[in-house]
Amino acid sequence: MDTWTGSPARRGAGELESEVLAALWAAEGPLSPVEVQAAMAGNLAYNTVHTILTRLGRKRLVARVPGGCRARYRPTKGAAEFAAEQMRAALGQGSDRLGILHRFVRALDPVDKATLRALLGDPG
Predict the structure, then answer these.
(1) Which of 67, 74, 2 is nearest to 31 (CA)?
(2) Which of 16, 48, 118, 124 is the most exposed place for a label (fewest CB within 10 A)?
């Protein structure tokens, strides 16, 4: 609920796409728009879900799976791959890569820092 207007809060740009992708990643197989709608607690209109799936398809983030009388969709990449691509894109947008990496690493919690060290082969 928006505290200023008293109406339901609008989602930010990309939030609906992220929610649809999350529903697809959580599924055990491809989903129809109706199944995506149900997975999102049915709080979106069918047309909205279909529009989001179409947009995600144009961005090559979901693929339409042939078969049956209704279209079904599956993500084209996993959640970790998608998140890593977003992180690389954010890093590429700044002119001070070292500064961005430094601030990112400093903001990590100790467990994530240890995991990053292990991934980089740094004994710490």
Answers:
(1) 74
(2) 124
Residue 20 token pair: 């649809």
Q: In sequence order, which residues have a C-beta less than 8 Å from that of residue 52 and are 6 or more positions away?
A: 16, 17, 20
What pLDDT, in 10s, does the model give residues 19-47?
Answer: 999 999 999 999 999 999 999 987 889 99
Contact 36, 44 (CB under 8 A): no
Retrieve residue 63's tokens. 């693929």
77: left (phi over 0), alpha (psi -120 to 50) or beta: beta
Q: Domain coordinates of the chain in residue numbers?
A: 15-75, 79-120
Q: Which fold has domain 15-75?
A: Arc Repressor Mutant, subunit A (1.10.10)
Output DSSP code: residue 75: E
62 DSSP β-pair partners: 75
pLDDT value at position 94?
82
